[in-house]
Amino acid sequence: MGLKMETSSATAQAGRDPVTGEIIAAAIDVHRALGPGLLESAYQACLEQELTERGVPFQAQVDLPVEHKGRRLECGSRLDLVVRDEVIVEIKAVESLAPIHEAQLLTYLRLARIERGLLLNFNAPYLRDGVKRLILSST
Questions:
Q1: CATH number of the structural domain 2-137
Q2: What is the pTM of this model?
Q3: Burial of 118 (0-12, 13-18, 19+ CB in 10 A)
């Protein structure tokens, strides 16, 4: 399994992938209204509200079990959002995204068997600079 990472504007995302495009557009609206500096939980609640108002189906705080040596373990990991059962959204409010954030989302993608994920760092001055798109490929 390989990994491709892309960072680009919401407009470019929407042209390539309508689902991630609609998530990024909703997140930009939240960021414009709130700005940086709040806790992740505030951004998540507002993004959930924005997605609901736009009619975008999602699940929040989805439990992610781990299988180890043939046993399913409930380890307390949770996915922030799963949108349209196609995209995992990991919400951050940190100074800058670090490699561990990408590794975390990659692991979530593998365990959930979902190919696309978005890292959204709401602490960026402009949200477009805090967006990373990860694609889990089978190559």
A1: 3.40.1350
A2: 0.84
A3: buried
3-state secondary structure of 38: coil
Burial 23-44 (b: 16+ CB within 10 A, else e): bbbbbbbbbeeeebeeebeebb
In this predicted model, what pLDDT tens digit does every residue of 21-35 receive, in sequence order? Answer: 999 999 999 999 999
How buried is residue 133: exposed, middle or buried, by Cβ count under 10 Å (0-12/13-18/19+)? buried
Q: Is 120 helix (H, G, I), strand (E, B) or coil?
A: strand
DSSP β-ladder status, 78-83 and 87-92: antiparallel
Residue among 137, 68, 67, 77 nearest 108 (CA): 77
Which residues are registered as beta bridge partners of 79?
A: 62
